[in-house]
Amino acid sequence: MSVSHHLTDETLHDYATGGLNAAMETLVACHLTVCSHCRARAGMADDVGGGLFDRLEPVTPRVSALDLIARAAHSTDSPEADTVRSNGKSDHGNVVEGVPRPLGRLLPAPLEQLRWRRVAPGIKQYKLDDKHRRDGAFQLLHLAPGAVLSEHSHNDRELTYLVQGSYRDSIGRFQVGDIADLDGSIEHQPVVDSDMPCIALIATQSPVNYSGMIGKIMQPFVGI
Amino acid sequence: MALRKRMGDNLLAIGRDRDEAAFADFYNYYAGRVKSFLMGKGMSDEISDELMQEIMLIVWRRAESYDPAKAAASTWLFTIARNRRIDYLRGNSRIEVELEDEMLDVDSDESETQAGFVDAEQAAERLHRALEKLPQEQRQVMHLSYFRGQSHGDIAQWLDLPIGTVKSRIRLAMQAVRSSLKDENNAAPVKESGSPIND
Ligand SMILES: [Zn+2]
Fold this sequence. Notes:
The complex is a heterodimer.
Chain A: H1 9-17, H2 22-34, H3 36-53, H4 65-74, H5 79-87, H6 101-104, E1 117-120, E2 123-127, E3 138-143, E4 147-148, E5 158-164, E6 166-169, E7 172-175, E8 179-182, E9 191-192, E10 198-204, H7 210-217, E11 221-222
Antiparallel strand pairs in A: 1-2, 2-3, 3-10, 4-11, 5-8, 5-10, 6-7, 6-9
Helix pairs in contact in A: 1-3, 2-3
Chain B: H1 2-17, H2 20-40, H3 45-62, H4 73-90, H5 109-114, H6 120-133, H7 136-147, H8 152-159, H9 163-182
Helix pairs in contact in B: 1-2, 2-3, 3-4, 6-9, 7-9, 8-9
Bound molecules: zinc ion (ZN).
């Protein structure tokens, strides 16, 4: 996969420090799945965390190392549970062809068979897990060939990952695997520019008025 | 640095032999730092201690998954601690790249991370020196973002700085670290979307 739009340093830093919400984490992990360049940069951000970790001022633990091991030997906890949870890698969930697994795990069906909700001519929406709504919006948008979104900017940070198809805006052309990592200052007007439906995964960071945001992004007209 | 090598060797010994002395050495150095990290992120002493014990038990049970060619011991531990804290707060797992994903782009993985370095230890040494050389104000902001604040807004408030200043210090620090690692490893600059090429 040839990826030409990448994550910003700021987003990678926030991913490394654990400062992103689950929606944004998922989206970042999708890009890292297909982009070895950003994966190396994310690894560097982890390395910085490791390097700084050595400088932390320790706080005295309540138990000794050997007491901890001795207690663990007698406990009935399954050691398996630790790693599965701590790595965020689990066996459950779907493998959806053509979709990176961090997203695929959230989808009950292949892309075209999802229960899309039509929100405007040529534009359908699929909301992902409601629990993400607390700290931001998380959704897939399905844009018909030729669809144009109204020109808009974002009050909050917004990340877009291109799952299928392509679009073009003032920043450039976005294809599968690309990231649009926008801060609030950028105005853009995406236009679907191929004859295949364009599917984008979109996550916002901070609490937003969900319906308000949809209203703003979606006052689209279709047809160029 | 001898300490980093020793901690890496400890993990290898734990993974290979469940070596209790190696674990004790690792624990005596890192347990208090893991606890410090959790408390700094706002958890109580009691919960931090419990979670620290869980994290150190992951080290004890899963040390064989540590690969010294990929990361320093401190990086491996930091990512476990970070992820375990998020799991605890969220009641759900942190979302990470799954290395067995069939879409994984593996082409340039090794070349991008390791090219130009004799080994991970040398890379860690360079990184360490780059962190040493950071201006105090940048190092402070990095420390706070990794180990204290929840957001750039928190940090800005604590330091009584505009949020833009916090963000630019973080960006400068990341660039400084990256360029120090790239001295012998001239990768082409890559465009970040939504921002001009600034590195
Ligand atoms: Zn990338």
